[in-house]
Amino acid sequence: MYYLKENVLVEPLVAQWYAWPYLISPATAAMSTAHLHMPLMKSFIQAPALHARAAKNRKLLGGRFMGLGKDKLADVRALMEATQTQDGDLLALAAAITELEQLVAEQAKGYSVEALYEQVPEPLKGYVEIIYDLNNQPSVRFLESMMYRGPLYKTDRQALLFSLITDDHREFSLASPRFAEENHFQLQIPFAHKGLDRLFAMRTTPATLGEIQAALDLTEEQTQQLLPFLTETRPHQAEPYRGDDVRVRYYGHATVLVETADVSILVDPAISYRYPNGIERYDFSDLPEKIDYVLITHNHQDHCLLETLLQLRHRIGCLVVPRNGGGSLVDPSLKVMFRELGFDQVLEIGELDEIPVKGGMISGIPFLGEHADLNILTRLAFLVRLHNRDILFAADSRNLEPRMYQHLHRIYGDIDLLFLGMECDGAPLSWLYGPLMTRPLERKMDQSRRLNGSDFEKAMALVEDLGAKQVFVYALGQEPWLNYIMSVAYDDNSGPIVESNKLLAACEERGIPVERLFGTRELILTAQAEAAVVS
Predict the structure, then answer these.
(1) Portions of the chain given CATH number 3.60.15.10
(2) Of 376, 273, 358, 274, the residue nearest 317 (C-alpha)
C-alpha cells in the first residue's frame, strides 16, 4: 500500500506552460499563446543570455524574462515549433478576436449589427454575439461554454509534472515554460480525469500500484516512473477539529481555514508542501480530510491557484466562486472553467447572496478596486458568520468608496476579524491583461491604471467604517514558498511595507489588535453571544 510523498511537487501544465486560469478558457488561452508565449519564446531564442541575467535581477522579478539557461535553447525552439503546428488553431483564434474587435469598433455605430455576423472571422463563427449597451457602445460576448465543448479546448495539451521539492526556491512560474528534468515525471492527462482524485487522495489514503495504475490508465513504464514519488510510510495527518468554538488558521498569503465541529471553510487556497524548512507553515497534511466549502475571491493567479485546487478537488464539498455570465474576453467564467476541470459542485454567488451553513452563513460582499478599472465581475469578498462571529475576507479590496463599507456596516454590524491585503504598489494594467488587449495602450494610461490594493488611508477608513475589532494584513507575498506566483521582493522602504506599518501603528493607537501575518497563525473565537474573545 502506497501513499503520495509529502514533498511531491505537482505542477499543472498547458502546452508546457504553468497552468493558470487564463490558459484554460479557450479565448484567453488563444490570446495568451499568441501575445505572451510566442513573443517570449522568440525573444529568448534571439537573446537567451539577456533573459537569464534579467530573470536573476531582483528589480525585474515578474518581468517578461525566461528564467532558463542556454541549455534550454533547443527545447524552446522545439516548443515554439510545436505551438505553431499543434496550436495553430489557437493562434488563428487570437488573430480572429483582434480582427473582430476592430470590425465591431469601426462598423457598429448604433445601428443594427445583424449584417456584421457575415463578416465574423471563421474561427469565431457561432461562438460570439455582437451587442450594444444602452449608450450604443458595442462589444463582443463570447459563448464561452460552447467554446469549451469544441476543438479549441485542448485537453490533450494538459499535463502534470511531478518532482520532489526540498526547499522553498521555485522560479517565477508565469514567464518560462517547464520541461521535464532527469528526476521528473510528466504525465499527459486531462485535468478533469477522475483518476487524479484517487492519486491525490493518496496523501492520506493509501492505494496499491495496481489501483493507481488502473485509475490513471498508466502503462507499466509510467507506473515505474511514478514509483519514486510514492512511499509506504504513512504521512502526517491532521486531527479533525472538534472544539465548541471557531478555529481560524492562516496558511500563508491569502489562505485561511475556518472551522467549527460542524463545518470547514477554506479561502483562496495556496498550500505549501511538507519538507524540511526554517519557516513554520501549515501544509496539505494539516487540512481536514473533507473541506465543506472553498471560497475563491477573484481570478488572479495567487488567489485562484490551480496547482492547489486540482489536488484538493476530491476533498471539496462545494467550490464557491463569484457570479459571472457576461461573456467578456477579459473576465472568463470561473464556474464554467471549474466545471470543465472536473469539479462536481461549483456554486456561483453574487453580492449579498447568502449560503446557509450549520451554525451560520457565508455571504458575498462587494469587492472594489485591484483590477485596473476593468469591468471584472469575477470578484467577491466573503463574510463568514459562524456562532455569531463575523469574519470578513476582503482579499485585495481597494477602498475606492468608503460609503459602501458604511452601508455594509449598517447591514452586518461590527466585524470581529478583518483579513485584508495591502499590496498598494500593484503592477500596471498591461502586466496581467496586456495579452488580451486588441489595441495599443498609451503608456501613461497603462501606468495610471494599476492592480492596487488599499494603502494606509484607505485601509484605515475600511477598518473604522466596518467597526473591525481585530485586523490582519496578509503577508504581502513575502512567504518564500509562494514567490513562484507572487514575484515580489520588498524591503523596509517598499510601499506595501510602509503603508501596512502605518496601519499597524494606527490600529494600536486606537486599541485595535492588529498583525501583519507571516507563515502561520491560529486563533480561537469563542462561540458565546458576548464580545468575541480571541487567543
Answers:
(1) 246-525
(2) 358
